[in-house]
Every structure is written in C-alpha cells, then in structure tokens.
Design a protein that fits this description.
Layout: E1 8-9, E2 15-16, H1 18-51, H2 61-64, H3 67-93, H4 96-126, H5 135-168, H6 172-205
Helix pairs in contact: 1-5, 1-6, 3-4, 3-6, 4-5, 5-6
Keywords: Cell membrane, Electron transport, Membrane, Oxidoreductase, Transmembrane, Transmembrane helix, Transport
InterPro entries: Cyt_c/ubiquinol_Oxase_su3, Cyt_c_oxidase-like_su3, Cyt_c_oxidase_su3-like_sf, Cyt_c_oxidase_su3_a-hlx, Cyt_c_ubiqinol_oxidase_su3, Ubiquinol_oxase_su3_dom
Transmembrane segments: 30-51, 63-87, 99-119, 140-163, 183-205
Length: 206
Amino acid sequence: MSTHHAPTLDPSGFYVTGEHHTENGTLLGFWLYLMSDCLIFAVLFATYGVLNGSYAGGPDQKMLFDLPLIAVNTAALLLSSITYGFAMLEAHRGRKGAVIAWLVITALFGATFVGIELTEFHHMIGEGAGPWRSAFLSSFFALVATHGLHVSFGILWMIVLMVQTSKSGLTEQMTRRLSCLSLFWHFLDIIWIGVFTFVYLMGVLK
C-alpha cells in the first residue's frame, strides 16, 4: 500500500511543495540575473561619469542631444511599462486575449523606443560623432546601446511569450514567465530614467 506524505510547513507558515520550490527557484535565479545586470550598468554609468567630459576636440552633449526627441522616447518606454502592468492584471484575471493585446501594445511602444534610438545613432554617426570620435562618445554609445540591446531582447522575449500564451493559455508556469519579463521590463525603465537624467538632461543643462 502506498503511503501519502502530508505537506509540511516551512518556518514562514507556507506549505512546502515541489511547485513552491520551483517557483521560488525561478524567481531567485531571475533576481540574481537582474543584480548581475545592475553591476554591468553600474560600471557603464561610472565609465561615462569619468569620460563624459573627454571630447578630444569633438562635439559635446549640447551639440548632439535632441532633448525633445529623447523626451518622446522616454515617454514611449514609460508608457510601455504601464501597458505591461495592464497585461499582468489581465493575466491574473485569466483573460488570455486581453493579455496578448496588451503585450502587442507594449511591444509596439518598445519598438518605437528602439527605432528612435537607432535614428539618433544614425544621425550622430552621420555627423561624424561615432563612438570612435572621443572617449565621451565611446562611453555614451556603450551605455545607451547596451540598454537598447536589452530592450530589443525584451521585445523578442515578449513575442515568444505571446506565441506561447496563445498556444498553451495562462497556465501557472506561463504566468510566472510573464512575471519574470515584467521584472525585467520595469528594470529597464528604471535604468533608462537614470540614463535620461544623468546622460541627456544633465549633459544639456550643464
């Protein structure tokens, strides 16, 4: 006769199950990844802080940065964070179609952000202000392009989750994946606020 082992309580009062451990392991691993990403961006911010005045006779921030355009770009990314929040609300309500619709809107805002950033890079390089021109520009492109690559990866990840949600529905595993991407996407928003303030706004106003 098979024996049934009743679930035990951990010190916090929650039942310990295999699913409980899987969920905690996934979230813990993802938080560790985000902390490693924080270190990468901290190094890039520090590098820019040291080199942002090294123009080598080339253009400076006031000559290069189009602050109104960057403000539009910032608004697009911040709005994408709000729309992703709506997607998570619908996920917890079990509305698959609404989740996919909000994810599509979020991805479009993200694509707008990347498109404007690429336009800015193209214009700067066309003006002879590429990353090879000065230490300031090398540190600028390294920081901003790294963030842009993260946003591009987030859009790709979002598309994959849209396809998976469409096929398998809002399972517990799928909701957990959406939650991980939510953390990642909001993290990118926080980093961009730092970039906008420290790089663009302070660069133009100093």
